[in-house]
Amino acid sequence: MNEYSDMQLIDNIVSKYEGERGTLIPILQEVQQVNGYLSRDVMKYIAQKTGKSASIIYGIVTFYTQFRLQPIGKNIIRICNGTACHVSNAIGIIHSILDYLGVKEGETTKDGKFTVEIVACLGCCSLAPVIMINEKTYGRLTPDKIKKILAEY
After folding, report:
1. Comparing C-alpha atoms, which of 25, 103, 13 is closest to residue 57?
2. Cα(100)–Cα(36) distance, integer angstroms
3. What angle (nearest 5°) sits at the alpha carbon of residue 59, between those of residues 55 and 63?
4. Can you point out the beta strands (E) in the chain?
5. How far is residue 13's CA from residue 34's CA, in Å, rounded to a whole number?
6. What is the mean pLDDT of residues 93-107?
7. pLDDT tens digits, one per residue of 50-73
8. pLDDT of the residue at 84
9. Res. 143: pLDDT tops 90
10. Which residues contact residue 120 at a Cβ distance below 8 angstroms, ignoring those fewer than 6 apart?
């Protein structure tokens, strides 16, 4: 999207909530859905449109883990590090993925293909260790299986 259409979309989102209280987080959530993250320029624009200070917007965005300050990859890899996965070598899976992709936790690959997140639980304990790529779950993993799985993408 070009800057004009982004700002027009923000105007539309903000106007939906006009006159209502407690709408800043829903506004930020909706705006983030468009591009996958909230840039500094977008946060400043939201501050102008809502009458809130840019520091309040930034404070909210950096406090809640649901908000992103950087673009995300086409594919989101969520690696479970909950109890069942942790005791089933989640650390080996984490290292295998991070090493293979050449990124750190929370980063996106240079080609924009993958973003890696380590999460507390994916709710698939019987499949431990487990990862999700987008909405697809992969379980009973070993570090050796990771390359084959990532090559599918």
Report:
1. 25
2. 24
3. 175
4. 75-80, 114-119, 131-133, 136-138
5. 11
6. 96
7. 999 999 999 999 999 889 998 899
8. 97
9. yes
10. 80, 81, 82
Largest CA distance in the chain: 55
- Helices 40-50 and 54-63 pack at an angle, to 10 degrees, of 120
Q: Is the dihedral of CA 115, 119, 123, 124 positive or negative?
A: positive
Identify any residues that bridge with 80 across adjacent strands, giving them in sequence order: 119
Q: Is 89 left (phi over 0), alpha (psi -120 to 50) or beta?
A: left
Strand bridging mode 114-119 / 75-80: parallel
> Residue 1 pLDDT > 60, yes or no?
no
What b/e string do you get for 32-60 counting C-beta neighbours within 10 Å, with b at 16 or more?
beeeebbeeebbebbbebbeeeeeebbeb
Model confidence band, residue 43 (pLDDT cutoffs 50, 70, 90): very high
∠ CA(25), CA(60), CA(32), 5° rounding? 55
E-strand spans in 94-145?
114-119, 131-133, 136-138
**145's tokens:** 């299986």
CB 140 within 8 A of CB 100: no
